[in-house]
Amino acid sequence: SVTFVPHLVPMTRGILGTCYATLTTPTAQAQVVELYKDTYASHPFASVVGKPPATKQTWGNNDCLLYPIVNEKKGRLVVVTALDNLVKGAAGSGVQNMNVMLGLPETAGLESLAIYP
């Protein structure tokens, strides 16, 4: 079972999310971080970070920052994420998916800042 908790705060743009999952086997923090880094290594817009992300870090870009934490006592995985919903949301995802479908570089049109508003 996964629990997704978006945080609504008074800001112009950005989504800070917290996802919770129960681990089926005891797993160390280092193992989880390594797994996430391996999984997202080939994804140009996903980064595993070493401290809790802030939406300001994704302002105007198509990045999604992931911060996995293991609560070993409770056997829970907590992943804190940050993204700019006006870029990484439907618009940025649409362009990224179109690029893949058309055989273009996945990053085409998504590397410059989109900072209005």
Q: In terms of topology, how is this protein built?
A:
Layout: E1 2-7, E2 15-22, H1 29-40, E3 46-48, E4 64-71, E5 76-83, H2 90-101
Parallel strand pairs: 3-4
Antiparallel strand pairs: 1-2, 2-5, 4-5
Describe the overall structure:
- With about 120 residues, the chain is an alpha+beta fold.
- It is about 20% helix and about 30% strand.
- It has 2 helices and 5 strands, in the order ββαβββα.
- The chain has helices at about 30-40, 90-100; strands spanning about 1-5, 15-20, 45-50, 65-70, 75-85.
- Strands 1-2-5-4-3 form a 5-stranded mixed beta sheet.
- The N and C termini lie far apart (about 35 Å).
- The mean pLDDT is about 90.
Tags for this model:
single chain, 117 residues, alpha+beta, 5-stranded mixed β-sheet, 2 helices, 21% helix
Task: List low-confidence stretches.
Answer: none
The quaternary organization reads as single chain
Classification by helices and strands: alpha+beta
The tally of strands reads 5
N-to-C CA distance: 36 Å
Strand content: 25-35%
Average the pLDDT over all residues and give the rounded result. Answer: 90
Main beta sheet, described? Answer: 5 strands, mixed
* Helix and strand run: EEHEEEH
Give the strand line-up of the largest sheet. 1-2-5-4-3
Calculate Rg over CA atoms. Answer: 15 Å
Helix content: 10-25%
Q: Tell me the number of helical segments per DSSP (H or I, 4 or more residues long).
A: 2
* Envelope shape: globular
